[in-house]
Amino acid sequence: MNKLTDIVNFTEILKAIMNVLRTLLSAVLVCSCVALKANKIDKAYQALKIYNYFEAKRLFERSLKKQPSPAAYGLSVIYSRSDNPFSNIDSAYKYIILSERAFNRLPVKSMPLLLKYDISPLTIDSLKAVIHLKAFDSYRSKGTVTALDKFIDAYPTAPQCFDAIDLRNAMAFEAARKEGTYTAYGEFIEKYPFSKELSEAKELYSSALFLSSTKNNTIGEFEKFISEQPNSPFISEAENAIYALSTLHGTIEEYYSFIKKYPSNHNVETAWHNVYAMYTADYKTESIIRFKKEYPDYPFIDAVIQDIELSQKQLFPVRENGKWGFVDSLGHVSISCIYEWVEEYSEGLAECGLNGKPGFINKAGTLVVPFIYEEVDAFHQGFSIVKQNGKYGIINKIGKLVADYDYDEIAEFSEDFAVVEKQGKYGYVDEAGNLVIPVVYTKAADFKEGLAAVEFGGQSGFIDKKGMIVIPCKYDWVDNFKNGLAKVKSLKKFGIINKKGDYVIPCEYDLLGDFSEDAIIVVKEGKYGFADRNGAVFIPLEYDFNETSLVSFSFRDGIAVAEKNKKQGLIDKSGKYVTGKDYDRISPFSEGLAAVMKKDKWGYIDKKMKLQIPFAYQKATDFKECIAAVSKNDEIGFINRNGKMIVEYMFDEVGEFKDGLCEVKLDDKTGFIDLSGAFVIPCELDEASPENGAVLKLEKNSKFAYYNRLTRSFIWKESGF
């Protein structure tokens, strides 16, 4: 038993010894391997130190499996440098990441071993930062979206990644804008939903889609666009286009048809107001009543009922104790004098002021438009131009702002358009307040007969209501169209064009008059004649021109003045003299008599060339209501058709008789006389001006009154008048 026990014990001891030997042998082998590894890394870094990149790279690559962190770091250094054939920034990044990950897996006790190669979290981060910067510069220099996409994908943790994203987005946006299609903008929006350019891209997408969808400018296209793009910001513009195309001629029938066909269009209210304004343009009671019967579906019927009542009132501004109000035609106070100022009524509303601000009241005295403006203009065609914060806008009769305060000046509406000015340039808004023709012209006139004169590049031409130049800007000056014709000036000569831009009268005249009885005076080299509306000169240029020709030489009742050798006569449209041609001056016939002058004296002849009233006057005027003003010794009186003096010579200035009264002036004071010459109002007024109908406004010593010329009585007098 003892021997057996001894054998067992010896066996166990032998096993223990063998285990110890194996452990020692393993330790020796490990130490040998570490030494070998360290030697390769050392040699690699020594080669790197002397820029032996080939050897260093070979050794680092052989050490990658056993010593990944220092080997990968070394390779990253090689690839990050530009002084060797292995330079590759993407490889540099690959190996610095590999080094970092291997370093983070090392046990703490092994990390100090890498310090001899200057490898630490700090140096790894430092090299990685250099690689990030170089990579960003490299990919950015390629100048393509694709390159920047690759950088963003490959270097997601680089601090330059945000700049790369912004730059990539900007480049992609610029590419989309260069292409300019809604497809390009849509792809950008979908691909870069968080870009800084997203908002602008959406606007451009909407604009491009709108333009592409409506390129033919037809109602059908705009209807389809609204149906397919209900959330587009250009819905309003599409509706405006439908409105404009549906109401090209601006007739009541067009506006009403538009209302019925497009009840949800935002221009319907404007269309209704246009129908109402056009139908009741004279603001007469009967017109408003007729409108109410014909358009029972008018949505603002209460306003119509009120207008029927108010339209029958005639009100006049009056002042009491420094405050203003209104009286009616009987002199009764209709609106109390509580305002700082008032203006006359226009289209049922009157400007009035409180606390330095203007607003509008109706004829009932109700405030319709509040006192909030810096300036207002009288209502015209249902709109008023108002000023706020130094800028002008447009309001309608209920005070609604239809054109924003965006303009330096705004003109009154003419043919549904108003000229607007901004920074010295001009464009047009419609009655909905939309800027329908851009602010690009250096001058712009009102629309007349569907066309407006504009100036661009120092030359003038005409645009239509779509803003299209229909007659090129090639003239030095143009006038508005009248009855299908417009005067133009080119190279200092005048002519006339039609709406097609064709010359009716070529630009070869020194001066042109205005058409009167389808005839126009034409002047060249001091001679004048007459042309018709077709441009045909039917009376040759054989008469002597002087500066009074444009006023007195036009045709009237088929007769015009002809002058030769400082003598005048009257000719008909055939050029035949209907009077003698030996007068010093002659005026066309008026009430059967023509004023003529010989040897500085005036008299009157009839159509048979008989002298009816002798040559006895210093000056003579046409007959009006069988009465003419004549003068002697610089004093004016009146004669009848028989030459009888009905008002003696005594006045400095006179007007014309109307309703049996005539305004006269004596010693700078104004008064009124009747047909007998008797003073109805003595010459003690400072000023007299016509008001509505037969009412006159009289001013004296800063006070004023209203006088009815028919009843020959005062309606109202200010205290102290």
Describe the structure.
This protein has 721 residues and is an alpha+beta fold. Among the domains are: 2-141, no CATH class; 652-721, Beta Barrel (Thrombin, subunit H), CATH 2.40.10. It contains 16 helices and 45 strands. A four-stranded antiparallel β-sheet has the order 4-5-6-7, with no helix packed on it. A four-stranded antiparallel β-sheet has the order 8-9-10-11, with no helix packed on it. 33% of the residues are buried.
Number of helical segments? 16
Read across the widest sheet, the strand sequence of neighbours is 4-5-6-7
Distance N to C terminus:
161 Å
The 3D shape can be described as elongated
- What is the helix content? 25-40%
Strand content: 25-35%
Which consecutive residue ranges, at least 5 long each, have pLDDT under 50? 1-11, 13-38
- Which structural class matches the secondary elements? alpha+beta
Using only CA atoms, what is the Rg? 48 Å
How many β strands by DSSP?
A: 45
Largest sheet: 4 strands, antiparallel
Mean pLDDT over the full residue set: 91
Question: Secondary-structure blueprint of this entry?
Answer:
Elements lengths: L1 H48 L3 H11 L4 H13 L8 H17 L15 H21 L3 H10 L6 H19 L2 H10 L6 H16 L5 H10 L6 H12 L5 H10 L6 H12 L5 H10 L6 H10 L4 E6 L2 E6 L4 E7 L1 E2 L6 E6 L2 E6 L4 E3 L5 E2 L6 E6 L2 E6 L4 E7 L1 E2 L6 E6 L2 E6 L4 E7 L1 E6 L2 E6 L2 E5 L5 E7 L1 E2 L6 E6 L2 E6 L4 E7 L1 E2 L6 E6 L2 E6 L4 E8 L4 H4 L7 E5 L2 E5 L13 E2 L6 E6 L2 E6 L4 E7 L1 E2 L6 E6 L2 E6 L4 E7 L1 E2 L6 E6 L2 E6 L4 E7 L1 E4 L4 E6 L2 E6 L4 E5 L4
Antiparallel strand pairs: 1-2, 2-3, 4-5, 5-6, 6-7, 8-9, 9-10, 10-11, 12-13, 13-14, 14-15, 16-17, 17-18, 18-19, 20-21, 21-22, 22-23, 24-25, 25-26, 26-27, 28-29, 30-31, 31-32, 32-33, 34-35, 35-36, 36-37, 38-39, 39-40, 40-41, 42-43, 43-44, 44-45
Helix pairs in contact: 1-2, 1-3, 2-3, 3-4, 3-5, 4-5, 5-6, 6-7, 7-8, 8-9, 10-11, 12-13, 14-15
